# Entry
Amino acid sequence: EFILASVDEATAGLQEFAEGQRGVISVGTLNSLARVVLPKAMSQLARVFPGVELDIHEVSPGEALDLLYGRRLTVALLASDSIAKSSVSFHRFPVFQDPYVLAVPKGIDLSGVSDPWVDLTEGDRKIVNNIIQFNFGTAHQKRMEDWFQNSLPHHRVISQARTYEVTLSLVQEGIGVAVVPALTAQIGGSEHAFDVDLYQVNIPDREIVGLVPSQYVRVEPFATFFAVVEQAGKEIKFPQIHSPPPFIKKLMTND
# Structure
């Protein structure tokens, strides 16, 4: 009787899994997406599939791809500019556009600055020309370096970081400035995580996409999860972003 009861339980569990009522969805993603997008997506998924579990891996884009190829992830959420399009053989779906911004310590007002080297006090000028560089390790790194060279020709890199959270912590401390995606400056919902000012810049938005093996695209509960991730992306509320200061507006006009 014990063995038969165990078999019945296993059979019922397999039936629930086959119907999408139970199961595990393994997600590889960036820290900011894990904080802001996934909680909202999980909340929506639980209304339809309360028995489905999320296994969240906070990993770099390269690690996420390796895990996808190794069949250890169901889906990876990452920035499209962090991967080579020709090397990816997965189904891709859009999540949202994340604008890049210039993060500046509180108390340094750039709203009327046409030339940071002339219009700022000596102390503020030094801080604004101290660059905290996020280490992308991709072709995007060169685009960022070119942007700083054009925007702040007197800058110097004082620190490199490998997470946006560390980058923003250094900016918040008043050590320097950095270019980061706007989403990284908040934590959950619309709560602003870092006490910094954000300014619009003339850099194309970071495109966040989902990568998934094609066999999962129309299978439940995965299909619903992909849909609620897209919906969560549409509902994101970014922290306040100020208009570009005059010295950046000049670059936009030239572009």
